[in-house]
Design goal:
The chain has about 150 residues and is mainly β. It has one domain. It has 1 helix and 13 strands; from the N terminus they run H-E-E-E-E-E-E-E-E-E-E-E-E-E. Strands 2-3-11-8-7-4 form a 6-stranded antiparallel sheet, with no helix packed on it. A hairpin with a 2-residue loop joins strand 2 and strand 3. The chain starts with 6 loop residues before the first helix and ends with a strand. The relative contact order is 0.24.
């Protein structure tokens, strides 16, 4: 996959589809920093304190057809990581003290995260943690005891 793909080209190459309201002729930007797609964050590993990948982590190559990283709580609309053969590897084997990381990817060429409602985002070569987003919520009874909850897409 090259660095100047449109959403139409990416969905055609991967066989994954997005909803009809999305503009398919838009060029997908390739980002080398922090980015969000719905309830997921893609964060350069250097920006995540405390995250480690064990030496015995199981890595898998990311195929053009993709790896589903997260499905919505209702079971639909997956976030799927896709890449050209031999350009991206993924492991869910990470140690992350706040337990937000789904895993880590290492890419030598652009990789893409596709979601039916959000379209696609491009990930520049590098090493990234893919994490769940959380939001602050007030206590159920008094409203004075804030907590955190995962964002559901």
């Amino acid at each position: 996959m090259n660095a100047t793909l449109t959403l139409a080209e990416l969905t055609s190459r991967t066989g994954l589809d997005v909803l009809d309201h999305l503009e398919r002729e838009v060029t997908i930007p390739i980002v080398d920093g922090l980015q969000a797609q719905g309830d997921l964050l893609v964060v350069p590993v250097a920006l995540v304190s405390g995250l480690t990948v064990p030496d015995l982590a199981r890595w898998q190559d990311v195929p053009p057809s993709g790896i589903v990283l997260l499905r919505s709580s209702a079971g639909g609309n997956p976030h799927t990581l896709v890449a050209d053969p031999a350009t991206c590897r993924w492991t869910p084997d990470v140690l992350d003290p706040p337990a937000l990381a789904l895993g880590v990817l290492t890419a030598t060429a652009p990789a893409y995260l596709i979601h039916p409602e959000h379209g696609a985002t491009g990930i520049a070569p590098g090493r990234y943690a893919v994490r769940r987003q959380r939001e602050r919520e007030m206590g159920v009874n008094s409203g004075f005891f804030p907590g955190n909850r995962l964002i559901a897409d």
